[in-house]
Write a structure and sequence with these properties.
Strand order of the largest sheet: 2-1-8-3-7-4
Number of helices: 16
Largest sheet: 6 strands, mixed
Number of strands: 8
Oligomer: single chain
Order of helices and strands: EHEHHHEHEHHHEEHHHEHHEHHH
Distance between the termini: 43 Å
Radius of gyration: 26 Å
Structural class: alpha/beta
Helix content: 55-70%
Shape: globular
Strand content: 5-15%
């Protein structure tokens, strides 16, 4: 059995204003009764702003039912929201009570005008976002023929990526920890500044956040969205760790997740730009001064890759292949595409770790959060906020402290008092 937790946070609504599930959901084929029930219940949970826990047997099309049910509600809700905002902005009438309390009437009018102003500002934000999406989607039809002609090249590029993805998976497995066990995989330094991708103001746009335990499960979900009737109606962005999305050969060859993260941050702070490398780690272009130290994290290239991520639905492998082909950073491109996305697909740790959400700029306010394979949720949260220390590490620390005490016992008496206290703590473990 697969478990799903779904949570949606918003202001309460009057029951008579709630949207009703459609008589027939959009579905790739005639749905079974269990799929109809799943989508209907999901629609009602979303519209009621409730917490839902769904369980469905394996093989019953849970992912497809989830996609069609959630997106049916999302698109209809966004449509109705815009209609109501436009009605409020255009409505300049205020009900005047036939009484002598002019002060209360003035306050009521001011409150109503404030609501109209807030509605106008929100409607303006929606229109600006829609205009950006419209410009990007206008390119989609122009690129279709080009995509067809380049299919062979794209296939060859994706085929090359298989070996690289296998190496990335083997590296993660060799460290004895999966996605759910690695906090440092999604580590972000407090000093990391990402001004190029930071929104001008707090982004409270409503979107769907879908997270699962592994990158392979996320890729499978993205493929299901592509096959659904909503594949051309929704903008989707896939997020992943640096270790998975990095295309810089000198960085991705590092042995650990933490090393990759730190190297990426280090390159981001450098003023000089090192030479880009190809598959065999041979230089492909001359170094240039100025800008980011990573030759793949260029503003122009990242912006183009960001638009490609919005143009059509891409899974992680698609973005990595495009990044390697254009020598652009898919990691930062996907992050910068989030403000224009209606659905964001991401791993557990990125969503559940507050520091990571803040660094990426994810705001869950007014949005829908879907957690797949939710029976792993408690273990994941525990691992995120836990640190494992082996006996060998404790033994090494004990040995180093013993050498330190022996060498400096006569010089740093205050420090030695602290060291002795640490030794007593070691003894209590033994």
């Amino acid at each position: 059995y697969n478990c799903l937790i779904h949570f949606y946070k918003r202001k309460s609504m009057a029951s008579d204003n709630l949207l009703q599930p459609p008589d027939k959901f959009k579905f790739p084929f005639p749905p079974y009764d269990i799929q109809e029930q799943f989508m209907t219940e999901l629609f009602q949970v979303l519209e009621g702003g409730k917490l839902g826990i769904f369980e469905s047997p394996t093989g019953t099309g849970k992912s497809l039912s989830l996609i069609c049910g959630a997106l049916t509600w999302f698109l209809e809700s966004e449509k109705q929201k815009r209609i109501k905002l436009e009605e409020l902005v255009n409505d300049k009438t205020v009900d005047d009570d036939d009484d002598d309390d002019w002060f209360a009437a003035a306050g009521k009018k001011q409150e109503y005008n404030q609501k109209r102003l807030e509605a106008k500002e929100e409607l303006e934000r929606i229109k600006v976002k829609d205009e950006k999406l419209a410009k990007i989607k206008a390119k989609r039809s122009q690129l279709k023929q080009t995509d067809i002609e380049q299919n062979k090249d794209e296939f060859n590029e994706l085929f090359k990526e298989v070996k690289w993805m296998q190496k990335a998976v083997q590296r993660e497995l060799s460290q004895g920890a999966g996605d759910e066990d690695i906090l440092v995989e999604e580590y972000f330094s407090d000093e990391e500044v990402d001004d190029d991708y930071e929104a001008d103001e707090e982004d409270t746009s409503r979107r769907i956040f879908f997270c699962s335990r592994t990158h392979s499960q996320l890729s499978q979900f993205v493929r299901e969205v592509k096959k659904s009737p909503f594949g051309s109606d929704v903008s989707l962005v896939s997020l992943a760790s640096r270790a998975v999305m990095c295309v810089n050969p000198s960085v991705k060859k590092l042995p650990s997740q933490a090393a990759i993260n730190e190297k990426c941050l280090e390159l981001g702070k450098k003023k000089s730009r090192p030479t880009a490398l190809d598959e065999d780690e041979n230089p492909t272009k001359k170094s240039k001064s100025g800008g980011c130290g990573c030759p793949y994290n260029k503003n122009t290239g990242t912006a183009v890759l960001r638009d490609q991520a919005i143009l059509a639905i891409h899974d992680i492998e698609d973005l990595v292949a495009a990044g390697r082909k254009t020598q652009s950073c898919p990691y930062y491109a996907s992050r910068s595409a989030v403000p224009l996305a209606q659905m964001v697909v991401l791993p557990y740790n990125t969503l559940l770790h507050a520091g990571t959400r803040k660094a990426i700029g994810l705001n869950l306010k007014n949005s829908i959060v879907i957690i797949d394979e939710a029976h792993n949720l408690l273990d994941t949260i525990t691992n995120i906020h836990s640190v494992n220390i082996s006996g060998a590490q404790l033994g090494l620390a004990y040995s180093q402290l013993a050498q330190y005490r022996e060498k400096y016992s006569t010089r740093l008496k205050v420090i030695i008092v602290i060291v002795n206290w640490i030794f007593s703590s070691f003894d209590s473990f033994v």
